[in-house]
Amino acid sequence: MAILVTPSTKIIVQGITGDFGARHAKLSLDYGTQVAAGVTPGKGGQFFEYGANRVPIFNSVADAVKATGATVSVIFVPPPFAADAILEGVDAGLDLAIAITEGIPVRDMIRVKRAMAGQKTRLIGPNCPGVVTPGTGDKSSGGCRIGIAPGYIHKKGHVGVVSRSGTLTYEAVYQLTTRGVGQSTCVGIGGDPVNGTSHLDVVKMFNDDPDTHGIIMIGEIGGNAEVEAARWIKANCRKPVAGFIAGSTAPAGRRMGHAGAIVGGAEDTAAAKIAVFQECGIEVAVTPSDMADALIRAAKAQGVTLS
Amino acid sequence: MNIHEYQAKALFEKFGVPAPRGIAVTAAADIATALAQLPEGPTMVKSQIHAGGRGKGTFTDGFKGGVKFCKTKAAAREIAGKMLGNTLVTAQTGPAGRKVQTLYFTVASDIKKEYYLAILLDRASSRPVIVASTEGGVEIEKVAHETPEKLFKVLVDPAYGLADFQVRDLVTRLGFAGPEAKNAAKLIRALYTMYWETDAAMVEINPLITTPTGEVLALDAKVSFDDNALFRHPDIVALRDFNEEDPKEIEASKHGLNYIALDGDIACLVNGAGLAMSTMDIIKHFGGSPANFLDVGGGATKEQVVAAFKIILGDPNVKGIFVNIFGGIMDCNVIATGIVEAVKEVGLKLPLVVRLEGNNVAAGKATLAASGLTIVSGDSMADAAQKIVQLVA
């Protein structure tokens, strides 16, 4: 098992005819992911052709769901239209919508989040790399790759990774894979201040997943999502957890690339979050090169086998 | 994006948030004409820079105070001459300070009591929050820490907007009564409308004041906007003051690069915001000091890498460069080719450590090796960081 998605999950790509969406739809098809449909308003009835693949394009998410039974969509729609694209997925009754788009206005996301309250759809992102559940094939192919992560660096296994940053997720995954430790599912929750799924949401899923034996949680300056997750871990999680927080050297009041990576007060600095991690029994990676080793140390200390 | 106080006050006027009458000037020759438009009497002279702590700041020529109360317009005129064009150093500007290119004159109000009022995003609930306090004119973090009972928060449901009962309740808790209560409620509603309609990241009034005649006025104004929403506000984009930004940061934004200048001596060039932040951290961890944050993004081109190198080398403090690329999808050879071209073009004489990992890394490393340039290669982030720190030390 894994969390959120499995190799048999059927996905819809919203914005499949744009450069960005098309490029990553192809990479997902290469990885063996079930890309069941594309959505581009006005291009319904056409096909997205790639090698032997012929992915039908629909005018709306509802049409795509009806025709293919897909339950998950990935959104590559440009920022001014992305909030609407998410709401369309919610309206179509998807289980999961994953918004890759970077640059969605905060006000749009405030409204989207309010509109999603009480609905069945879960949102991951926006401004995120997506979700990967590695497969059993060569270089982890045959898995479910939704978004923009490099599939080939993964390895099927038992470590769950959750992160606000794409490249730091890849860094952690690569470290694990080169040490022979595989992953159950890797989730990028995105670098925006208003997002659909928090560190805590994902940590709870990993905790409930019997296939996940250990967790790497990667955070950064800004907000208190990592602190919330750490406190829950201390009280409830019995699995080894390693953590890393980026931005120790970030100057206060400046946005460090991610819209949400900004120090607002004394409590959302890297130092404050690292202190909470330590207090909550999370093995803190000394440097970003130490993320996989930190988890291996934590697992060893708890007598847990990761691979 | 930040704007100046005088620009924020103009928006206040548009949305019906009352503030003392004021006028801005940018040239010494216009000071007299500007002051002539204000009534005779006590006048404030306020330096317009994008940094807090102006009142307690000191100009580089020793003149104290970037915000001054003057009893007469004549006194204001004299003080203005000392401030305009002078460089103001505050707790937030760094030692170099900022040149005061605009002054704002306002009618000095009689203050009965000072309050605090702000609207921003509450990240935990993903809703707008109004933060208000009976303690104005002081640092709000201090109030939150020392007297949290004097700080009031109102979360706004975005589906309904700010409700009247919430405003009434807040006004009561702040101790307003009679005409003051009515005026305060009106101001809060207007400020919320402005926050929401302009896609503001934060609007802050510190202090908000009452006057002996029952007026409620915004004495100061600090407003910033969500960069992601600027595409729908060309009127706000027009308020951007390039004088307040680092020229290297302006240049970087033209090339789609995300660059923030810092005061260290090891420049970094990285893909991805999280990796870029942690590259700075790891330099510091091994005893070095980062000169910048630089994220070239997930799809950097050769041209962007060349532009990034030029920007980095425009910083005279830089003594070495650390390129850290995890090319998940990005082709490492594109980056390597860009590095070689950039180094040849700018004639690099500083130590350069490159850590490449990911897609097509073998070709990327081969390109670096075949270039004949003295590029030190690092295996992991930690290895590369240690190498550049040693080379610069």
Give your account of this protein's structure.
The complex is a heterodimer of chains A (307) and B (393). Chain A has 307 residues and is of the alpha/beta class. Chain A folds into 2 domains: 10-124, Rossmann fold; 155-302, Rossmann fold (3-Layer(aba) Sandwich), CATH 3.40.50. Chain A is built from 9 helices and 14 strands. Chain A has helices at 19-31, 61-68, 79-91, 106-116, 166-178, 199-208, 225-236, 270-279, 291-302; strands spanning 10-14, 34-39, 47-50, 53-58, 72-75, 96-99, 122-124, 130-133, 144-147, 156-163, 183-188, 214-220, 241-246, 283-284. Chain B is an alpha+beta fold and 393 residues long. Chain B has 3 domains: 20-107, Dna Ligase, domain 1, CATH 3.30.1490.20; 113-237, D-amino Acid Aminotransferase, Chain A, domain 1 (2-Layer Sandwich); 247-392, Succinyl-CoA synthetase domains (Rossmann fold), CATH 3.40.50.261. Helices cover 35% and strands 24% of the residues of chain B. In chain B, the strands form 5 sheets. In chain B, strands 8, 9, 10, 11, 12 and 13 form a 6-stranded antiparallel sheet that branches. In chain B, strand 11 and strand 12 (216-218) form a beta hairpin. In chain B, helix 5 packs across helix 6. The model of chain B has no long low-confidence stretch (mean pLDDT 94). Classes of the chains: A alpha/beta (307), B alpha+beta (393). At the A-B interface, helix 4 and helix 5 of A face helix 9 and helix 13 of B.
